[in-house]
Write a structure and sequence with these properties.
Helix content is 74%, strand content 3%. By secondary structure, the chain is mainly α. The chain has one domain. It has a two-stranded antiparallel sheet. Strand 1 and strand 2 form a beta hairpin. Helix 1 runs parallel beside helix 8 and helix 2 runs antiparallel to helix 3. The protein is globular.
Length: 314
């Protein structure tokens, strides 16, 4: 789609307004998020994402709307795996429960800002060089294989996180929280609290996960506007999802295998598209409807298989 500058500006301002409202509401008094509040927050973000998709359908047509919904479901499903690492980070930094909502929100905003240049550069490369699809496809297939072979999640050592090591070189740090403050004074010197460090860690971790999620969404759309908005809505709803299913993540025992199938499928799809563009007649093109159907079916089977396995083990 040819998106005018004013629409880009209006979209970005709208997304920032939603995040600012969420930060303002959550920051008025730090408190632990209840299940009811998490469900309410997820409902709001899902409705907003759906309304945006309907707007694309009305003003842009069925093609960009279908690509948006497929990209949104894909990014949201891949983000679920991020929650495992976020849980480990929160435990490693010993973040108090009442501070975790703001940690996640600020970390997600940081992730969106850091992902922006990667999305733009990836879109430019995909439009100019068909070989980019081979690189993205190979990366996704490799990630899928690693997910299958990954095994158990490892513990996270907060002191060894790249964000913590970089921050420690810039300014002193302390291991003690000072309420909701990002910095405090230790022996007369300004020092970063663990709250600032964990926010940086969550942001950088979200960027690392973009190494598979951004190439994956190129498997369903090449439109920069669709990619940016699908990523934004998927990440914005991640904070409430953390508090809703944080305790249930361990029950999704086959999540990695399901995501591996999705990433492998998208990786092969990208390779087929690159071959098709180069005139290889036997290489099929897989439409957005088929892509969305495969993603939804695989995720449903993953949840069902995990439920059956947990009941059998119990």
């Amino acid at each position: 789609m040819n998106i005018p500058v004013w629409l880009w500006a209006a979209t970005l301002l709208g997304l920032l307004a939603v995040l600012a409202a969420d930060l303002f509401i959550g920051g008025r008094g730090p408190a632990e998020v209840t299940t009811r509040a998490a469900i309410r927050g997820i409902t709001v973000y899902v409705v907003l994402a759906a309304l945006f998709g309907v707007g694309l359908l009305v003003f842009g047509g069925s093609q960009p709307a279908g690509e948006y919904f497929a990209g949104y479901v894909l990014e949201y499903s891949l983000s679920v795996d991020n929650l495992f690492v976020y849980l480990l980070l929160m435990g490693s930094f010993a973040v108090p429960p009442e501070l975790r909502p703001n940690v996640l929100l600020v970390g997600i905003v940081g992730t969106l800002v850091l992902r922006g240049p990667f999305i733009v550069l990836g879109a430019e490369a995909a439009q100019r060089f068909s070989a980019t699809f081979y690189v993205f496809g190979a990366l996704l297939v490799y990630t899928a294989v690693q997910l299958v072979r990954g095994g158990e999640k490892e513990e996270v050592d907060s002191s060894q996180h790249v964000a913590v090591r970089i921050a420690s070189k810039i300014m002193p740090t302390t291991s003690e929280y000072d309420g909701g403050r990002l910095t405090t004074r230790v022996d007369g010197r300004r020092a970063a609290t663990p709250l600032l460090l964990v926010m940086l860690a969550v942001s950088v971790t979200g960027l690392v996960f973009a190494l598979d999620s951004i190439p994956a969404i190129f498997g369903v759309t090449k439109d920069t506007y669709v990619i940016v908005t699908a990523n934004a809505f998927a990440l914005m709803g991640l904070r409430q999802l953390y508090f809703l299913i944080g305790g249930l993540l361990e029950r999704l025992v086959h999540l990695d295998k399901g995501l591996a199938v999705v990433l492998g499928f998208i990786g092969v799809k990208l390779v087929f598209e690159a071959l098709h563009e180069e005139g290889v007649g036997w290489a099929p093109t897989i439409g957005v409807v088929w892509s969305l159907s495969v993603i939804v079916v695989v995720l449903a089977v993953t949840v069902a298989a995990s439920t059956v396995s947990r009941r059998r083990d119990a």
